[in-house]
Amino acid sequence: MSIYPSVITTLSFPGTTDKLNSPSHSALETGQSSAIGQLQAFIGLSGDSSTAGTLLYDIRSSDSDGGGHIQTANKGGTGQTTFTKGDLLVAQSTSVLTKIAVGDNGTVLKANPSTASGVEWTSGLANITSFAGVSSVLWTYPSALGMLFVQLWAGGGSGGSGVDSDRDTGGLGGCCFAEAWITPSILQGSQLVYIGAGGASVTGNANGANGSNTVFGSTSILVAYGGSGGQSATTGASGGGSAGPFGISSTLFAGVGGDSGVNGQDGIYCGGGGGDRGNGGNAIHGGAGGGGIQGTTAGNGGTSRLGGNGGSASVGGNGTAGSFPSGGGAGAHVTGGGFYSGKGGDGLVIISEYI
């Protein structure tokens, strides 16, 4: 900080040739008074008197090499000597500013009174809750919710079952998978969550059972639709199908079940069930389709990246159940053996809470 005033030309010390009367005593006093007046004008007067105000700041020459003149927070400074890109200054107390380094990519600043600075960098993810193996549950709305990410898997359909010359086929994977970001403003306190069960296995000459829907919210804010059970018919049994996300039928999202001897189609959210002798379709998010069977020819279940795989059919045995979550069950041929088709995989709910 520079010395103020910046230029003082009338205040000088006597030289070796100066005399007591040259310059005169009055001239020196005049020069000193003028200089003090300039300082008073900059510093300020104390009240209405002519007394100079109290100097509140350290003053150093612009030519100073430092000297430890670091201004603290209670003197209007920061108390810091260096900064790095992204640094934040936070009040640690009434007189101390502390430096907080920038957080990792994607993190957010979160209040935390238990820390020295009162704040911390966090991923923003406060809690992850999953629900499975129950029919319904009440999800409690957290008090400091910023955003909600909900993922749903519905129940997968079970495989169909046939007798003698009947055709039997695998069920569709639980199409369905559904996901959405939800803002707290549309939530009304705690919410009911329904977890869809997979379709039950069947025997004899019967169509497979449909999987149940998985629903988030008392007003059905988000729904994943259950997979259909595989069919059983004397000719050309086909694999089960289902609606895609939000109940929209689309082969892009939900694979269609295969006809006689045809594989189930692949889908983004679920794979179609295999027709008799056909393989189940693959999926990315939801469950894959179960394999179909006719006589001694059995199809394999499809695979899924994020959901359950479809069950594979078995000659001379029960159809394999669809994997959790939402995999479609395999078909069964029960001639002389009383075998059962594969059950559909149960649904799943994952709720990620962000501050």
Task: Give a structural overview.
The chain has 355 residues and is mainly beta. It folds into three domains: 1-69, no CATH class; 76-122, no CATH class; 125-355, no CATH class. The chain has one helix spanning 25-43, and strands at 88-91, 97-100, 108-111, 119-122, 125-131, 136-139, 147-153, 161-162, 167-168, 177-182, 191-194, 214-216, 222-224, 232-233, 293-294, 297-298, 332-333, 348-354. A four-stranded antiparallel sheet has the order 5-18-7-10, with no helix packed on it. It has a four-stranded antiparallel sheet with strand order 6-11-12-13, with no helix packed on it. A two-stranded antiparallel sheet has the order 1-2. The chain is rod-shaped.
Topology at a glance:
Layout lengths: L24 H19 L44 E4 L5 E4 L7 E4 L7 E4 L2 E7 L4 E4 L7 E7 L7 E2 L4 E2 L8 E6 L8 E4 L19 E3 L5 E3 L7 E2 L59 E2 L2 E2 L33 E2 L14 E7 L1
Parallel strand pairs: 8-17
Antiparallel strand pairs: 1-2, 3-4, 5-18, 6-11, 7-10, 7-18, 9-14, 11-12, 12-13, 15-16
Structure summary:
With 355 residues, the protein is mainly beta. 5% of the residues lie in helices and 19% in strands.
From the structure above, extract its key features.
4-stranded antiparallel beta sheet; 355 residues; rod-shaped; 3 domains; mainly beta
Q: Provide the spatial order of strands within the biggest beta sheet.
A: 5-18-7-10
Q: Helical element count? A: 1
Unreliable stretches, pLDDT < 50, 5 or more residues? 62-67, 246-250
The amount of beta strand, in percent, is 15-25%
Helical content band: under 10%
Overall pLDDT score: 76
Q: Tally of extended strands?
A: 18
Q: Major sheet: size, sense and barrel closure?
A: 4 strands, antiparallel
Q: Please give the alpha-carbon distance between the first and last residues.
A: 44 Å
What is the string of helix and strand elements?
Answer: HEEEEEEEEEEEEEEEEEE
Shape: rod-shaped
| Cα Rg | 39 Å
How many separate structural domains? 3
The structural class is mainly beta
